[in-house]
Amino acid sequence: MSLFPRPLRFWTALLLLGYWCALEAAPAAAGLAPSQTVGAAAYSRAEDLAAVERALENRVVAQKLRDYGVSPAEVKVRLAALSEPDLHTLATASRGLPSGGDAVGALIGVLIVVLLVIIILKLLNKEIIIK
């Protein structure tokens, strides 16, 4: 004698098959939601211009522009002539530039990890031998 009779197994299998087909027919959709509204109200020309000018003050960027033969006066004229969407695109890209920091933060992080490994090994009564 079976725990599940044959008709119950048939209807359970049919129900599960229908459920799985419904899941396959309607897949889930996911995405990131913006933290601020996107549109003309989300940015202003003055803020974008300030962000681009801050990026242009970077020594590396200024040197590259001089290498290409572009003077600072030409840069200011071209920035003033940019349209709103182009200026916003440039400002968004320039916000991702590195801030010019050195590798001290990375060095401190590596030292902290090394110290943590040494402490954990000492707590586990393991011997650390450096030759």
Features:
131 residues; mainly alpha; 63% helix
Characterization of this structure:
With 131 residues, the chain is mainly alpha-helical. The protein has helices at residues 6-25, 45-56, 59-67, 72-81, 84-94, 104-123. Helix 2 packs across helix 5. The termini are far apart.
Q: What is the H/E string? A: HHHHHH
Report the C-alpha radius of gyration, rounded.
30 Å
Shape: flat
**Biggest β-sheet: count, sense, barrel?**
none
Mean pLDDT score? 78
What's the helical proportion of residues? 55-70%
Strand content: under 5%
| Tally of strands | 0
What distance lies between the first and last C-alpha atoms, to the nearest angstrom?
72 Å
**Would you identify the regions where 5 or more consecutive residues have pLDDT less than 50?**
none
The secondary structure category is mainly alpha
Q: What is the helix tally?
A: 6
Task: Write a brief structural summary.
The protein has 131 residues and is mostly helical. It has six helices and no strands.
How would the blueprint of this fold be written?
Elements: H1 6-25, H2 45-56, H3 59-67, H4 72-81, H5 84-94, H6 104-123
Helix pairs in contact: 2-5
